[in-house]
Design goal:
By secondary structure, this protein is α/β, with parallel strands linked by helices. It has one domain: 3-Layer(aba) Sandwich (Rossmann fold), CATH 3.40.50.1580. Helix content is about 35%, strand content about 30%. The chain has helices at about 25-35, 65-80, 115-120, 130-145, 165-170, 180-190, 215-220, 220-235, and strands at about 15-20, 35-40, 50-55, 55-60, 85-95, 105-110, 150-155, 175-180, 195-205, 210. Strands 5-8-7-6-9 form a 5-stranded mixed β-barrel, surrounded by 4 helices. Helix 2 packs parallel to helix 6 and helix 4 packs across helix 8. The relative contact order is 0.21. Bound molecules: 1-O-phosphono-alpha-D-ribofuranose and uracil. Catalyzes the reversible phosphorolytic breakdown of the N-glycosidic bond in the beta-(deoxy)ribonucleoside molecules, with the formation of the corresponding free purine bases and pentose-1-phosphate. One of its GO terms (molecular function) is purine-nucleoside phosphorylase activity.
Length: about 240
């Protein structure tokens, strides 16, 4: 039985899913990092693949942009495909003392979205990463000698024309990355009993006006993907 947004059959999706926003990044990761990758989703062109990494089954699927899209896929993965671990492989805008290409391990995700409040009686949920996944990513970074920072990030609903004071508020609260999904993914993961982590590459600097090329955001994030796959292979949680 397929679901409204996934045409994968039961069993075709692994219990561990990498979730980049961009479906073409998903295709690139499947081709470059997974052994024997097979296409398992094409519905809406939200490309998904399942293969193996060091003998473990791993899937990779685009999530689209923004919490509503990401939440649809994460919910269907958790409820209908038995997925247990979701790692977002994303890009973000950087604020303050970060540089393009830096890797952030999102410990917590603040947000301007109402998504978690809608599910949590209007209260503020602490949207946080799964601790064991976060620790596995920190350990993998150490073992692979990859520089990655544990960070607070901010998930916004507005890529354009958001709060004009956002950057100064983020700096004040020691938040260094802005993207569009992690807070919703973390809240949803808590409710669905799934373990989640967002790993983000800084693709833009919001104060310095620096930007990665779109092709690099699609295909140039190999260090981050290698770090995540290594962490997942060693994660015992
Ligand atoms: O590169 P991805 O994973 O899509 O992540 C970031 O890029 C998109 C905006 O350009 C948003 O989805 C944001 O969260
Ligand atoms: O959401 C995002 C992603 C990348 N860069 C940004 O500035 N914002």
């Amino acid at each position: 039985m397929s679901t409204p947004h996934l045409d994968a059959e039961p069993g075709q999706i692994a219990d561990t899913v990498l979730l980049p926003g961009d479906p073409l990044r998903a295709r690139h990761i499947a081709r470059e990092f997974l052994d024997g990758a097979m296409e398992v989703n094409t519905r809406r062109n939200m490309l998904g693949y399942t293969g193996t990494f060091r003998g473990q089954r791993v899937s990779v699927l685009g999530s689209g942009m923004g919490i509503p899209s990401c939440a649809i896929y994460a919910t269907e993965l958790a409820r209908f495909h038995g997925v247990k671990r979701i790692v977002r492989i994303g890009t973000c805008g950087g604020v303050g003392d970060v540089a393009l290409g830096d890797i952030l391990l999102a410990q917590s995700a603040s947000t301007d979205s109402r998504f978690n409040r809608l599910q949590f009686g209007g209260h503020d949920l602490s949207a946080c990463a799964d601790f064991d996944l976060l620790r596995a990513a920190v350990d993998a970074a150490g073992q692979l000698d990859i520089r990655a920072s544990v960070a607070g990030v901010f998930s916004t609903d507005s890529f354009y024309d958001g709060d004009p004071h956002l950057v100064e508020r983020l700096v004040r609260h020691r938040i260094v990355g802005v993207e569009m999904e992690s807070a919703g993914l973390y809240g949803l993961a808590l409710r669905e009993g799934v373990r989640a982590l967002s790993v983000l590459a800084v693709s833009d600097h919001l104060q310095r006006g620096e930007h990665m090329a779109p092709e690099q955001r699609e295909q140039g994030l190999s260090t981050m993907v290698a770090l995540v796959l290594d962490a997942l292979a060693d994660d015992a949680g």
